Amino acid sequence: MSVWLHAANSNLTATTMPSAVAEVGGLHLISWAFALYLAGSICGGASISLVITRYGIRSTMCYAALLYAIGCVVAASAPSMQIILVGRTLQGLGGGALLALVYVAQDRFFPNRFVPKIVGCISMIWMISSFTGPTLGGAFATYASWRFAFWTFAFLAVLLIPAIRALLHASDTIASTTTAKFPFVRLCYLCASILMISMAGANFDPIASPLLVVGGICCFIFFLYRDQKASTSRMLPKEVLDFTHNIGNGVATTFLLSLCIMSFLVYGPLILIRLYGMNPLEAGFIIIIETIAWGSVAILFSGTPARFEPYLIRTGSALVVISLTMLAYVLPKATLWPVIVALILGNGGFGMMWGFIIRRIIDASAEGERDRTSSSVPITQQAGFAIGAALSGLIANSMGVSDGASIGLIEEIAFWLFAGFVPIAIIGNIFAWRFVRS
Description:
single chain, Growth Hormone, Chain: A, 3 domains
């Protein structure tokens, strides 16, 4: 339920925000409904290892579900788009915390050998959410009110609280007596980094966009520097920047490859509609293929013996490069079946290796660092998705994408949206090989 609440709500804006804008206005702010949710989820996930040390898993998960529910209520009752954005930020904080807690709980409550199977279950729930989230939002927006979608998610989050208290015993979630200060300044650096890079991609300006990218990178570096200097209040494992260690190599692999697979999700529908003559519903079904491929392959390989992990991780990371190269070549040519094959290869490759990457990262952590390490995995993935989406916007907008763009320009954009990420994916492959070398 925790995974589903976060995943389904992250896709909810696609079908609810058009109706919300028609009622309360704020069309120029519509992109922020997704950006603030994502920024909130990254910050919520980043802080979760510290909150657990004070309150334990059970209480922390209850607080996260309550915060998520409050965000849904704020959005559902909002009189303006600005208030909706406040609600979306609160939803992101709660949803990101719930997702990070799932990864911490799987490490605390299950032997490490079960991680790929649990990740297979998580991938299956994420796959289901890709259908249910937009479908629920669209159904409410069409036949009732878009506000009912948020009321429904608030109700489900409230139902999660007694389930947590019933299923997680207090003896399993003992908290420590730490007096570490909460890292508000570091979270501000992290949030500013994501938002500045998102702004650079959303509205391209030849002067402002590069400055925003540089500013976002600087904020992210400040966040990492201050976090590594912290002692008791550190949010990430101390080896996160050590590329001679499995954690550093695993985090780099996760971040770089997650960053590379966002182009099609962001601009795939536009390209399919303009070049292939599809309607929005047909383009949406092609997008869903990505999630189905990831989830299905993750489940298929979840029982693979540990001795085959290096081969699966190397093969999966190589398939991401092959997929990007194929998409750069075939997508501008308006031939659909090779595009579908490329999407299945890339996302299937990620599903093939994802559970084993998580298991090896957690297994490499020291005993006192396991909560930080477990919660860092979804943070890294979400940060890669956010920055990848922003860089995709930066590429497309710098080339002049618009509703009136010519077919030739769309073909050129379709090429560079994927060819531009191939070098980054190759670097991700290098880290993947280093990751499984030991």
